[in-house]
Amino acid sequence: MQREVIVIGGGIAGLQCAKELQEAGRNVRVIERARGVGGRLATRRFEGQPIDFGPMFLHGHAEPFLRAVKDVDGVVMQSPWPRRIQGQGTPCQPDAFAPTEQRAIIPAGMNCFAKHLASGLQVQLNTRIERITADGNCFLLRSSADEEFQCQDLVVAMALEEILGMLGTMGAVPELAPTATLLGMFSSVPSLTLLAAYPLEVPAPDWDILYPEDSPSLQLVSQDSCKRLQPRFVTLVIQARPGWSRERLEQPEEAWSTQLLQEAAQHVGEWVLHPLWTSPHRWKFARVDRGNELSRPLLTPINGNLRLGLAGDVFSPGGGVQAAWLSGSALAQRLLNEE
Ligand SMILES: Cc1cc2nc3c(=O)[nH]c(=O)nc-3n(C[C@H](O)[C@H](O)[C@H](O)COP(=O)(O)OP(=O)(O)OC[C@H]3O[C@@H](n4cnc5c(N)ncnc54)[C@H](O)[C@@H]3O)c2cc1C
User: Fold this and answer.
1) pLDDT in tens, 36-56
2) Cα 61 to chain center, whole Å?
3) Is residue 149 domain-shared with residue 277, that is, in the same domain?
4) How do residues 238-265 score in pLDDT, each as one tens digit?
5) CA-CA distance, 99 to 85, in Å (whole number)?
6) Cis peptide leading into 82, omega within 30 of 0?
7) Do residues 272 and 202 both lie within one domain?
8) Angle formed at CA 200 by CA 198 and CA 205, multiple of 5 degrees
């Protein structure tokens, strides 16, 4: 009988893993808590206009990853955005601008990459897994709506701290003790993020991304609307620095949103204080703390005949979207090769 595979997490790592397993003929189901796929590769829409509020662009150097990106409808490889960079501050991923790195944007929204990977997969949305147990023959997964799922191969593909939380629900599983200890040595950084929309008449800046070197709060301001084919609004995405974000993670959104808008206005212009619309987002685990990544995904046999795989951006060097994709791909190949 074929082994059932469940992937918890419809981000880039989980989707790529599921895609390769399905292509090899396995029965795979992806379970995702949100109402759409993509996870941190996130896009919102303001009156139909996409705004990317996770990564601003895709970047990478690994051939298989670049080929997967090239396959997405409408993707712009060797992207002219972001060409106009202002400021000497540090990008979230400084490697993104290394000479070896290719950059790409998707005018229809960055989460189209995730939608592309998900097409043809069995994805169950709006389903949060709350507890995993492993009995002799299968993993039993229970959702917050009390739905139950069973499988013999389980992939957990999400942010590091969320993986640790998920493993914690399994109670004492001796095979997983070293994994939990190892993963406990790593961490992710937060990012408070504010999206803001303005009429086209505002004096929009002449840059694509601003990396201020002298701001206590701002990591970057991205002029997202420059990525769109026919923008109806000028849209800015304002991302806060990790340390500043960490200190304010538990504060009400109004407090830090106002501070971010005021700081952005200092750098961009007074008009920034008068948006048509804003939307705050609290990324508790935005990305892996740089340089703290493992070299490959983990696969642990449990109770003799069950297998638990872990993937996500912490399981491949460099972190970020490319690492998430590579970890999902590598885990799928291990699951197939080590059967
Ligand atoms: C603000 C910001 C800026 C970034 N900038 C860059 C950048 O410049 N370059 C770069 O390469 N990367 C960047 N990243 C990081 C990049 O987005 C991530 O590394 C990558 O998307 C992680 O993919 P993943 O599949 O590992 O995890 P995720 O995208 O987090 O996917 C995990 C999925 O699991 C789901 N999930 C979690 N718990 C459960 C549960 N209990 N039940 C069901 N589903 C669950 C989540 O909803 C999510 O969809 C940035 C991220 C943020 C937030």
Assistant:
1) 999 999 999 999 999 999 999
2) 18
3) no
4) 999 999 999 999 999 999 999 999 999 9
5) 16
6) yes
7) yes
8) 80
Query: What residue type is 187 in one-letter code?
Result: S
Look at the block and give the residue holding tokens 């595979």: 5
Location of structure tokens 């996500």? 312
Q: Indicate the pairing of strand 148-151 with strand 139-143.
A: antiparallel
**Ligand 1 proximity of 153 Cβ (cutoff 6 Å):** no
Domain that holds residue 126: 4-38+115-186+291-337
| Beta strand spans in the chain (E) | 4-8, 27-31, 43-46, 49-52, 58-60, 76-77, 85-86, 102-105, 123-124, 129-134, 139-143, 148-151, 153-157, 188-198, 209-210, 218-223, 234-240, 277-288, 298-302, 306-311
Asked whether 65 lines ligand 1 (CB < 6 A), one says no
Q: Is 163 in the pocket of ligand 1 (CB under 6 A)?
A: no
Residues 271 and 255 reside in one and the same domain: yes
pTM above threshold 0.90: yes
CB 11 within 8 A of CB 42: no
**Residue 256 burial (CB count, 10 A):** 21
24 Cβ contact list (under 8 Å, min separation 6): 332, 336
* Shared-domain flag, residues 32 and 124: yes
**C-alpha to C-alpha distance for 188 and 232, rounded to whole angstroms:** 35
- For 269, other C-beta atoms within 10 Å of its C-beta total 13
Stated as kind and residue range, the H or E segment containing 339 is none
| Count: domains in the chain | 2
The residue whose CB lies within 8 Å of the most ligand 1 atoms, and thus the one to mutate among 313, 325, 326, 329, is: 313
How much distance in Å is there from the Cα of 225 to the middle of ligand 1? 22
Q: To test ligand 1's pocket by mutation, which of 66, 146, 192, 287 has the most ligand atoms within 8 angstroms of CB?
A: 287
